[in-house]
Amino acid sequence: MTHQTRPADRVRGRRRAAVLGAALSGCALVAAGTTPAAAHPAGPGRDVAYVALGDSYTSGPGIPTQVNAECARSDHNYPSLVADRHRTAAFTDVSCGGATTAEMWRAQGGNPPQLDALDRHTDLVSLQIGGNDVGFGTIIGTCARLAAQDPAGNPCERSYQVSGYDRLTLDIARTAPKVDRVLREVRARAPHARVLVVGYPDLLPDDGSGCFPQVPFARKDFPYLRDTEKRLNLMLRLVAAVNRAEYVDTYGPTVGHDMCKAPADRWVEPLQPASPAAPAHPNAKGEAAMAEAVLARLERGHGRG
Fold first, then answer.
1. Which are the catalytic amino acids?
2. Residues contacting 188, CB < 8 A, separation 6+
3. How many helices (H) and strands (E) does the chain have?
4. Angle between helices 7-25 and 221-242 (to 10 degrees)
């Protein structure tokens, strides 16, 4: 018998293609009318089984106390703080420093694939991934190295656009289907779970100003790198929406606490940290701020991504 595609399936397919197309083109899209997150049995009166997936921004490298040296995972990262305050019956944190979307399916040293932590009993999933796929570490190293060539200019931006297009925008576009595949697999393995896609916090001054040499980038590269992070977060928001997941904005709540701020005010450490944290990563205050954003999303109940 010939298989007939249902109208709802065709609509979902068109929506996925449209949203991923928007991410691939680097265009903004207002996700009005996005399909709400799927219902699941966990409610305010029942403790939930929570699984945290993610990279080093989730794991919290350098933040005391480190409970998994291989993954640079802290017991004061934002998933742990969320688990302490949310109604959590079971908590599994498999986030790991250096993880890309590929590590959702493959082991990282002695740590099994992150997706293996999910099953049909999982009620809540948080996912923060994509930064390493785009190449956060390489970008920082490249921009710091090129800054000496033109401290007042934008040598890093020019380097990434030497071929006539912006390579970082292309890398973000190429990451969109990878995150989409992860979210579809999360749905397959944990069909009843509430899924939160967590964005990345504000790393550089939102007004585009710089702070050389504290952060050793050329002056006009600061707004370029700020906008690159915003494109990454937009992509995550769009891919979350098409997969009926909820997006957690951690950029907005952390504006004004970037790595250029004074040690007492910053929630992301510069390349030479003053607080226990990895370079260019959230410190304990940053992880706490991301936890607050996740908890606020949870308290609002289900809604559009």
1. 56, 281
2. none
3. 9, 7
4. 180
Q: Is 257 helix (H, G, I), strand (E, B) or coil?
A: coil
Q: Is the pTM of this model over 0.85?
A: yes
Q: Is 73 helix (H, G, I), strand (E, B) or coil?
A: strand
8 A C-beta contact, residue 76 and residue 85? no
Decide: helix, strand or coil at residue 267.
coil
Residue 206 in tokens:
């939102």
Q: Which amino acid is at 267?
A: W
Residues with Cβ within 8 Å of 177's Cβ and at least 6 positions away in sequence, in order, are: 20
3-state secondary structure of 77: coil
Q: What are the mean pLDDT values of the chain's consecutive 10-residue runs (305 residues total)?
A: 54 62 51 39 69 98 98 98 96 98 97 98 98 97 96 98 98 98 98 98 98 96 98 98 98 98 98 97 98 97 59
174 Cβ neighbours under 8 A, 6+ residues apart: 133
Q: How far apart are CA 201 and CA 212, in angstroms?
A: 20
How many Å apart are CA 291 and CA 301, to the nearest integer?
16
Backbone angles phi, psi at 246, to 5 degrees: -105, 135
The tokens for 195 are 């899924």
**Is the Cβ–Cβ distance between 257 and 202 less than 8 Å?**
yes
Residue 225 structure tokens: 């790198």
Measured torsion, CA atoms of residues 219, 220, 222, 227, in degrees rounded to the nearest 10: 170
Q: Which residues pair with 111 in a beta bridge?
A: 108
What one-character DSSP code corresponds to residue 282? B
**Residue 8, token pair as written in the block:** 């709802």
User: Is the bond leading into 273 cis (omega within 30 degrees of zero)?
Assistant: no
Tokens 């779970």, residue? 193
- CA 304 from centre of chain: 18
CA distance 204 to 138: 16
